[in-house]
Amino acid sequence: MAKPADVSxxxxxxxxxxxxxxxxxxxxxxxxxEILTSEFQWISRESDVLIRVTSPQHGxxxxxxxxxxxxxxxxxxxxxxxxxxxxxxxxxxxxxxxxNILKSGNNEISTSFTSNIAGLRAIQDYRVINLxxxxxxxxFEQPLPSLLPFVPILKGGENESTIREALQILRxxxxxxxxxxxxxxxxxFVLESALIQEIMRWDMTVLRESPWYQEILRxxxxxxxxxxxxxxxxxxxxxxxxxxxxxxxxxxxxxINQINDLERLKTILRDVVxxxxxxxxxxxx
Length: 285
Prior knowledge:
By secondary structure, this protein is α/β, with parallel strands linked by helices. Helix content is 46%, strand content 18%.
């Protein structure tokens, strides 16, 4: 049996850790050291990567990377908690960075956590990077191989020629070629189904192991628990339809809203995640 591809966040960042930490912090001459465990007493998340770094100007500290599929309102509090737990565990100051992968309905993205209880204040600043605002050329020029799988959703990366260029680089390097399925996943947001099948090897088994694919499915389950199973799954389907296909996707919701079978709706959510066109979804429905 083939070994599952490692497409974890830790794998991505470990491809070129020096370039990564310099990019996310904008601190030159930063040198990445050990990638530490981000498993704390109460929290463990695959999307967190904690790196020990050293700088001539700032000495030794930690860079906490939190890759979030979509920004959520609870992120400021979470960033404060992660930074504090990291500092407590390793006894080093922490530089927290929140990287948002896809746009969400929340237009206001906070860059700090603040609270004030009876005059006692808690403040935690952190850097925010929205991948849709990042120039695609950065992935090729710095170079930042960790960003290559995200090329289709970077600014200016949605065209076929740029995606083909990223694909060539991934296929040419033994360390990078297993990330092709992640590139294919994000390409579904910008290219048509036939074109993706033409230029990429489409492996759904590996794709379903992607942490971002799993995150989308967990999001639907969480919404189901919070708002009732049917309403939660319907809400997640609606969000993903709008994200991938805009208003054209939302036009399918009246038809989907008539479905009362929970398992059928879960299947539709998976289909929305992996579909490459409205026509493909209409055939499924």
